[in-house]
């Protein structure tokens, strides 16, 4: 079989050496004679896995000592409920920037659970081709925190700089650019990310939360309870053992590549190749404001729905997988997560170039 490149937005591409290592040690984990799929989460074997993953993540992101690293199930969607339940217990009210699909999902979940949501700015009328921003005059004292989708997976936009002029703790949804570019953890009260976009297989969600925000909140489900998970080292109940193990291997791989800064320049280089191609193309285009363009998710289109579908279909025949845009917006999308090699991006550009010549 010829080389296949996976541009899926999630679950996304994983580093090939990690997949090999999983295969190699699947039948006997660390010489134990047991598979990682069947060992106890209370065993020393697994305690080492979770402690190493935490330490590696702490090193890679330079997580300060006054933050907890927690592992949950339930994905990013679970955190749309968990964040207000844990962090909005005082005023039952949060602020949010409406930057697209996932911000709107977070909004709706909070409303459903009875919280008030102040939408401070929205770029809906610009089709989310640029990011909403906080006005400097904003002064909302009754919100418990500010929710921002740091990378908009579907609209292809990213806050590359964190600018929070409010006194509200910032809650950052980094599901699709976690460890893809450098952020300073101390700019955030809480960061969350479902693993399956840029970190590992589906099943585990990372939460990084500042100690002073951890409160004992009554009547919150135990599986969403930050302070309980912090107290129990994320081992209150059975955690997603395999997903944490696999994410841990990716963290080791990232360290070996040189860490987040090296990854960021790799991602910048690759996304620039793609945007440069799109900007000179006469068939394809990307409508996102250049300074807001995502490094991990590039959206593009011919402007013709039927032709876009044909592009995606022909790409598949060339081993270039999953470039169809999200069903809510149509068009095309290529995700360049950390594990995407430059050869994959080049193959995609070459294919699009040839397609353009034929049309
Ligand atoms: C995918 C995604 C989510 C939802 O994640 P699930 O793990 O599928 O619940 C939330 N936010 C962003 C930015 C995403 O890309």
UniProtKB/TrEMBL annotation:
Any one annotated GO CC term: cytoplasm
Molecular-function GO terms, alphabetical: O-phospho-L-serine:2-oxoglutarate aminotransferase activity; pyridoxal phosphate binding
Residues recorded as bearing N6-(pyridoxal phosphate)lysine in the entry: 197
Gene3D superfamilies (UniProt xref): Aspartate Aminotransferase, domain 1, Type I PLP-dependent aspartate aminotransferase-like (Major domain)
Keyword Protein biosynthesis attributed: no
Class in the EC hierarchy, top level: transferase
UniProt family annotation: Belongs to the class-V pyridoxal-phosphate-dependent aminotransferase family. SerC subfamily.
NCBIfam families for this protein: PRK05355.1, serC_1
Protein name listed in UniProt: Phosphoserine aminotransferase
Originating species: Philodulcilactobacillus myokoensis
Taxonomic placement: Bacteria, Bacillati, Bacillota, Bacilli, Lactobacillales
This protein's encoding gene: serC
């Amino acid at each position: 079989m010829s080389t296949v490149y996976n541009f899926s937005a999630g679950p996304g591409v994983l580093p090939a050496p990690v997949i090999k290592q999983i295969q190699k040690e699947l039948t006997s984990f660390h010489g134990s004679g047991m598979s990682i799929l069947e060992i106890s989460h209370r065993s020393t074997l697994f305690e080492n896995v979770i402690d190493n993953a935490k330490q590696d993540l702490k090193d890679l992101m330079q997580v300060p000592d006054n933050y907890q690293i927690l592992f949950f199930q339930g994905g990013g969607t679970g955190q749309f409920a968990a964040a207000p339940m844990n962090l909005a217990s005082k005023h039952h009210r949060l602020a949010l920037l409406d930057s697209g699909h996932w911000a709107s999902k977070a909004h709706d979940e909070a409303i459903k659970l009875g919280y008030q949501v102040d939408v401070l700015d929205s770029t809906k009328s610009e089709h989310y081709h640029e990011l909403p921003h906080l006005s400097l005059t904003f002064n909302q004292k009754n919100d418990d925190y500010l929710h921002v989708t740091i990378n908009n997976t579907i609209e292809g936009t990213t806050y590359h700089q964190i600018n929070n002029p409010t006194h509200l703790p910032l809650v950052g949804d980094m599901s699709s650019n976690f460890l893809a570019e450098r952020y300073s953890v101390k700019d955030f009260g809480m960061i969350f990310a479902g693993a399956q976009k840029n970190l590992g297989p589906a099943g585990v969600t990372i939460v990084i939360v500042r100690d002073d925000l951890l409160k004992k909140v009554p009547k919150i489900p135990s599986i969403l309870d930050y302070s309980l998970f912090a107290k129990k080292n994320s081992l209150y109940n059975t955690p997603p053992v395999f997903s944490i193990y696999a994410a841990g291997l990716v963290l080791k791989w990232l360290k070996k590549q040189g860490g987040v800064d090296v990854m960021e320049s790799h991602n910048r280089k690759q996304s620039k190749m793609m945007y440069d191609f799109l900007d000179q193309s006469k068939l394809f285009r990307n409508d996102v404001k250049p300074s807001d363009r995502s490094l991990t998710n590039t959206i593009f289109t011919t402007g013709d729905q039927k032709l876009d579908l044909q592009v995606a279909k022909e790409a598949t025949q060339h081993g270039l997988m999953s470039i169809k845009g999200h069903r809510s917006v149509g068009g095309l999308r290529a995700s360049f997560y950390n594990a995407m090699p430059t050869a994959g991006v080049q193959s995609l550009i070459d294919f699009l170039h040839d397609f353009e010549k034929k049309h």
